[in-house]
Amino acid sequence: MGRWNELRTFNLIEVLGLVAVAVSLVFVGLEVRQNTIASRAAAYQEHGSHLSNQWLALAQDPALTRLFLANEDNWHELTEVEKAQLTYIWIVSFRNYETILLQVEEGLLDQDAMDRLGWGEAFKPGYQAQMLWPDIVKYLSPHMREHLEAKFPNLLDKQNSPSDPAAASN
Question: Is the dihedral of CA 23, 24, 27, 33 positive or negative?
């Protein structure tokens, strides 16, 4: 009977060890899941704050708002400094877009993150981005340039009219 007790004790210890390992794995899995959720929340918060700060800067500065509203009708009225300011605004915007895109591609953010953060299907760079694209693209990674040009082919359709001072210098 002494042998039976030793074997039984050994089996009990083995079962308890397996249960402990399983419980540990479940705990680690829950911790990883919780950490992933926290990382996603922090990324959404960071991008949301960045975008809010951009919009707030535009809302508080009439000169920036005027620049942001520049289009075909008043493009010729902008100075070279104002066009440079717009270029920098677009570079910052596309850099933010790129960061979110990379986080989606790496799986840190969900596939719908672009839409949820305001960079989805509703976002379409217009006339300003078309006019400034040759200057903007210099500051973007090749991956980002290819992505934006594929998603927004209008960026390559820089249509300079004779009344556009930039057309005269090109």
Answer: negative
Q: How far apart are CA 108 and CA 164, in angstroms?
A: 43
Give the containing element (helix H, strand E) for 97: helix 80-105
Give the start-to-end residue ranges of the domains of the chain.
2-169
The 10s digit of each residue's pLDDT in 76-96 is: 899 999 999 999 989 988 988
Distance separating alpha carbons of residues 164 and 77, to the nearest angstrom: 9
Place of tokens 């340039």: 145
* Residues 133, 75: Cα–Cα separation, whole Å: 15
Counting other chains too, the contacts that 148-154 makes at CB distance below 8 Å and 24 or more residues apart are 148/94, 148/97, 152/124, 152/125, 154/124, 154/125, 154/126, 154/130
Residue 143, token pair as written in the block: 């991956």
